[in-house]
Automatic annotation (TrEMBL):
Protein name, per record: LLM class flavin-dependent oxidoreductase
Species of origin: Vineibacter terrae
Luciferase-like domain: residues covered: 43-343
Keyword annotations: Flavoprotein, Monooxygenase, Oxidoreductase
Pfam families per record: Bac_luciferase (PF00296)
Family: Belongs to the bacterial luciferase oxidoreductase family.
Gene3D superfamilies xref list: Luciferase-like domain
GO (cellular component) term, any one: cytosol
Lineage, top ranks: Bacteria, Pseudomonadati, Pseudomonadota, Alphaproteobacteria, Hyphomicrobiales
Entry keyword Calcium: no
UniProt feature coiled coil, ranges: none
GO MF annotation terms: monooxygenase activity; oxidoreductase activity, acting on paired donors, with incorporation or reduction of molecular oxygen
């Protein structure tokens, strides 16, 4: 298994009674709930945790992008990657990812990521996403254009990285008489591209395409749906006459480790329940606006996410669904082994901070995971494992 540390940077001091007067922590929650003095302390604490993950030996550390929400205070992940680029010495820096359809100028993404790739001497992993439905409300972008804008922005960025400039680019949404980025990326032909997703069929097909073979990262999904989406990727690869590697498949999941199962549940319970019931709360029309996905994909995502939009969830339900792993080191190792065996993935994006988890418990969780889980599983691979071919 390959282990990456993932941080959402939520606004942990959030007044959790907000839902008595507001429907969601996304888009419409007044920013008067945010205290800049508390936020400044929080940002520095979170950056320290990301840097500490490098010291603990994670293969990579990960940032991401969300807008106008207490769920995650990273509207510009390139900024956070830039702050980490000179201080993180060994780990890869994963930007998971830029929400391409909501950006007005994808060429700036090509430039920013190329700079980061040079500064880190090739330790950047780029993530491209469509962004969840709430981002289209926040950024006033038509969700029906999501797929088309994503594909065009992706193609423009990859061409900017790989095609000698200057050249002109004329698309439906983007028009540039000169594409000629300086600097060019450090990695050849370009930084690795990963595609996180909620499980859209179209996104799986895009990532698995023979000419791309991008890492597909399933996010926050019950175990049974995870296995389904992992199979869908492998089947998409077989339809294109190649066998997908386990290194093309990953899972992003919240995890908490403590001395015993009882201690782990007691310590994690209020914070993971705050995460799913308060920070993740949003109405379905915000999560899946009309036109955002095909009918087939929307049915699948609704089935996987149906508990997000209403009703309180308990830690017991999360553990039963497999959307949260919690327990002693032995319990956590056993769960990861089981899920890897059934899912066939080799990448674990471990969310070791969630919701209101305080600094001391976050550090404890990170240390126990790094020292008592990772070493036991680092040489474990799924049955029939085949390393991804070098591009």
């Amino acid at each position: 298994m390959r282990f990456f540390f993932f941080h959402l940077m939520p606004y942990a001091p959030l007044d959790l009674d907000y839902d008595k007067t507001h429907k969601s922590a996304w888009v419409t929650l007044p920013n008067s709930y945010y205290d800049p003095k508390l936020g400044a302390d929080l940002y520095n604490r979170y950056l320290d945790e990301l840097e500490y993950a490098d010291e603990l030996g994670f293969e990579g550390i990960s940032v991401n992008e969300h807008h106008q929400t207490a769920y995650g205070l990273m509207p510009a992940p390139n900024v956070f990657a830039g702050m980490l680029a000179r201080r993180v010495k060994q780990a890869k820096i994963c930007i998971l990812g830029r929400a391409l359809p909501v950006l007005s100028n994808p060429l700036t993404v090509a430039e920013e990521f190329a700079v980061l790739d040079n500064v880190t001497r090739g330790r950047i992993i780029t993530g491209f996403v469509r962004g969840i439905g709430a981002e289209y409300h926040s950024m006033a972008v038509n969700p029906a254009e999501s797929h088309a804008r994503f594909h065009e922005a992706h193609d423009l960025i990859v061409q900017a990285w790989t095609r000698p400039g200057p050249f002109a680019y004329e698309g439906k949404y983007y028009h540039f008489p000169y594409v000629n980025i300086w600097p060019r990326p450090y990695q050849t032909p370009h930084p690795a591209i990963w595609v996180p997703s909620q499980g859209s069929r179209e996104t799986i097909e895009f990532a698995a395409a023979r000419e791309r073979k991008y890492v597909y990262l399933q996010t926050a999904t019950p175990a049974e749906m995870l296995f389904k989406y992992m199979r869908a990727y492998r089947e998409a690869a077989l339809r294109q006459d190649y066998e997908a590697s386990a290194d093309q498949l990953g899972w992003s999941v919240k995890i908490y480790v403590a001395e015993t199962d009882e201690i782990a549940r007691r310590e994690a319970k209020p914070h993971v329940e705050a995460f799913v019931n308060k920070f993740l709360r949003m109405p379905v029309e915000m999560l899946l606006p009309p036109g955002y996905s095909s009918i087939e994909s929307m049915k699948g995502v609704i089935a996987a996410k149906k508990t997000i939009t209403g009703g309180a969830r308990t830690i017991d339900q999360l553990l039963e669904q497999g959307t949260f792993i919690c327990g002693s080191p032995a319990t956590v190792r056993a769960r990861l082994e089981e899920y890897q065996h059934k899912g066939g993935f080799n990448i674990v994006m471990a969310g070791l901070h969630f919701g209101t988890l305080p600094a001391e418990l976050t550090r404890k969780n990170m240390e126990m995971f790094a020292r008592e889980v990772m070493p036991h599983l680092k040489d474990r691979v799924p049955e029939g494992y085949r390393p991804i071919a070098a591009e």
